Amino acid sequence: MECLGYYNGEYGELDKMRIPMNDRVCFFGDGVYDAAYSRNYKIFALDEHVDRFFNSARLLDIRVPVGKEELKAELSDMLSKCDCGNNFVYWQATRGTQIRSHAYEEDTRANLWITIKPCDIVDMREKIKLITAEDTRFLHCNIKTLNLIPSVMASQAAKRAGAHETVFHRGATVTECAHSNIHILKDGALITHPTDCHILAGVARAHLIAMCGKLGVKVCEIPFSVEEMRNADEVIVTSAGSLCLQACEIDGKEIGGKDEETVKTLQKALLTEFKEQTE
Fold first, then answer.
1. What is the distance in angstroms between the CA of the first residue and the CA of the last residue of the chain?
2. Closest CA to 248 of 130, 154, 167
3. Residue 144 falls in the annotated catalytic set
4. What would the CATH number be for the domain defined by 4-118?
5. What is the DSSP annotation of 200-235?
6. Which of 14, 17, 24, 149 is the most buried (most CB within 10 A)?
7. Choosing from 127, 144, 218, 268, which is the catalytic residue?
8. What homologous superfamily is domain 128-277 in, according to CATH?
9. pLDDT digits over 56-78, tens only?
């Protein structure tokens, strides 16, 4: 099968899968998710993504119906049923199935979803355009929840503007993007917002930081401003499918282009790591 769906042990072609209307996701978006990319039927950084998924569930008191090893085995088994080995692999746990009520039953067992579709990671040779927007999301951005309306609207705004991503900022401080982490290079150092409640602790972000350590690039986990971003030597965006993208424009104005050698070195190293772990 090309696009595969799974719901509580049942699976089939994605567009033919059905869920009960009383799944709490339908009323409240009550759930958590994670996602990764596969190559040659191997999921990159699977342990890290699964650990983050279970942490998100713990923070929202969602009882995932399987353990970590069971989930990894289920994801791998589902992946083996696909026609293609290069895929976007997505999974979520919704709190459960109940008649609509804001409060939930404490012993509710979560519903497990998996979707898989053919997809490759983004070509890092392409530079991207960004726009900015005030960050009006709630203060639980460290939890990968299904409540993504602000990110949906911000992503649509970027699309309408002919841009790749929207950069969120709280006042003057940059936090993250609609579905990515953002970082800057300045005077040879990588600067990235610390992992607090304002940003998601991205797996690709962690790999970028680790790679900087291996290559001798200084890392500063401190907040930076919109103005500092505009005047940075380079602006970098990372996510599971965009390992290390270089930005060339923000709000219609050219930025970066002052430390391309470091960006290219990081991109090459991260792509090599991805390929080596998915051989």
1. 22
2. 130
3. yes
4. 3.30.470.10
5. ---HHHHHHHHHHHHHT-EEE----BHHHHHTSSEE
6. 24
7. 144
8. D-amino Acid Aminotransferase, subunit A, domain 2 (3.20.10.10)
9. 999 999 999 999 999 999 999 99
